Predict the structure.
Amino acid sequence: MGNLQTDESRASSRATGRATSATSKPLRAALFVTCLADSFYPDVGKSVVGVLRALGVEVTFPEGQTCCGQVTFNSGYWADTKAAAKRFIEVFEHEEYVVMPSGSCASMVREQYPQLLDGEPGWADRALSTAARVYEFSEFLVKVVGLEKIHATYHGTATYHTSCHMTRQLQVVDEPLAVLSRVNGLQLVPLRNNQDCCGFGGTFSVKLPEVSAAMADEKLQHMAETKADFVIASDLGCMMHLTGRAARQTHAGATPSSSVTPSSSLTPSASSAPLPMKHVAQVLAEGGLV
Amino acid sequence: MTNIKTPPGRSKPPTGQTPQTRGDRTPPGRSTVKIKPGSFRARAIEGLSNPYRRRTVAGVQDHFANLRREVFTELGNPEEWRARAAQIRTHTIANLDAYLEQFTDNVTRHGGHVHFAADAADANAYITRLAREKRARTIVKSKSMVTEEIGLNHALEHAGAEVIETDLGEFILQLDHDKPSHIVGPALHKSKAEIAEIFSRHAGHPIAVDTDELAAYARKYLRDKFFAADMGITGCNFGVAESGSVVIVSNEGNARMTSSLPKVHVVVMGMERLVPSFADLDILLTLLPKVASGQRTISYVTAIHGPKQAPDLDGPEELHIVIVDNGRSNMLGTEYQQALNCIRCGNCSNVCPVYRHAGGHAYGGVYNGPIGAIITPLMEGIEKWKDLPYASSLCGACTDACPVKIPLHEYLVALRRDISEAGIDSWGERMAAHLFGWGASHPGAFSMGQSILKTGLTATKVGPLGGWKSEREFPSSAGQTFREWWHKEGEREGERER
């Protein structure tokens, strides 16, 4: 990846105005990079920065950011989660827009913070106000930047992995597809049972690893059936789980897991090679957005 | 489940043995974590090791999903139907005392008897006493989850009666001493070949692996039992408060035979089964078969208003309705009250990916799938069932599928919170959460923690991430973090642009 934008393209993005116009101030977005992008997928963070800048958005990275706290919230540790939520609010509450490359983290802030801090003096209102500023990456492009500004070219066939929290909690469903429809040369093919969870589920993946892996195996099988060149996703948890599982399958030959007897229709056939996965932001960045 | 003894004649004991999780083919990285016997995880591993069941359940889920899509399209505005159904159920539960009184008054007016049972022992005592009084030697039953819940068959058999399940699925399970794996399709996990084997064993002669022959065997055997039965026991899908009617739905017609042929009809119903009126029933009956099995409508809907009346030619001479609490009132007045909205359609299991792979028996209790993971701990005690609320990836498919809008996945998270607040969680997890809470409010420490996570914990097979490493690789931890990149280049690139 690396080469996000050429100087020439940057110049042209500025020249065409994009989100910036002579009369309005430039858009400014604070990036919440998420733990997984920070540690394991820095390229996704860089792609988000590159794409937003190419679209004329000024990107800031507030230093004090930590984690949204979803892992502890979903594990039932609400008191410990409040520390993370309050930190997030303190860091981001004065930003006009907060953008994050994760539907799951966005749903945590937007859907759960108000519930978590409900009735807590001095925090309930701030939770609501901060929640209203948060956008998942593709959602921000569609709702704030404007779809018509997106021009990229990426030749290939891909399938899109629908992530659960983004779809069912955040209710951001069409936005990533709308963004990808702006990529010339990219053909999206349908994924069987796309609504089914991939089996990540945060601590679920370590508490019930065998069930989690069985869910991944079926998802990988369906992905292989699409014959796509790669998979596009909006959540790095799903990506880390699925690519990690695919790597293990390759590692262990055709045996997906010794703890379970593979059932032929539910586990990938030996011939299915793992598909590479990319975040929506990476597709746009590699597609030389602008 | 304190007052419910596992009926030896009906149920297999909870899975005690943990299947071998490591063997000769141990792939690299497989952890050496011990799996607690009798836990959801142990039972799930057993479920995963049954390829037939996994294929069947997945096939049924996909098949139902296709049918459901079709019938919901015909319905036109499913979300409005769901909203109305949820409203009816929420209203009924909020006013349950008044509707129970109205229902009881109307049943009594029609000549029926009502008994309120506080728990399983109370319900079983009433029904076995009645069976003794009526000298009931042969008792036929139609499918009922609440009788599974209270272990009624065992109590009646203990009292010397012969109890015969007449729902085909339940009949198969009874002969095989197995228990239901799905709320609606109890024997979903059995193959045709297994059923032929079970029936052949019962018949004492071979019966072909053929649907017609298998059905014919069950029909012939059960038909004789219907005519011989002294007592019929059914569940109750809905009780209509305005009329005191008991409404039972079935696809096999056995509920109608069970409720009308024997001289005594006993209805066992959960205390939350009510709807105010027939107009409300209409909404729920329209939705139930569609969500339960993708059926447009159900084959038999039976509404019973009291025992045989003067001009009636047939019907039971006595009708007894046993209304069971057995832990349900634990939910009343709490944040979990909406769990009582449940109409036992099984659709949360129909869409649940965990159920799909682990199977219904993994849940351990009578009620499986997401609703089982909620009501079993709430009814029988959270300490005993504390692993059930974690049996979910929290994907939310159940919540979206529930026709009466129970916030299922939110309840699962709330139960996890209850577990941590009650201090019955694991010490290690609690410490990790506290550490996280502290780290999340100290950015310097947090990014140091991220680095440790990235390079340290991910490198070993043991520790909190052992469960990750047992099944998957970690992404490469080489190279700089985003933060490092931002400091070195990212931020400056932006400044250059401006």
Remarks:
- The CA atoms of residues 112 and 319 of chain B lie 5 Å apart.
- Residues 1-31 of chain B have pLDDT under 50 and may be disordered.
- Chain B touches chain A through 93 residues (CB under 8 Å).
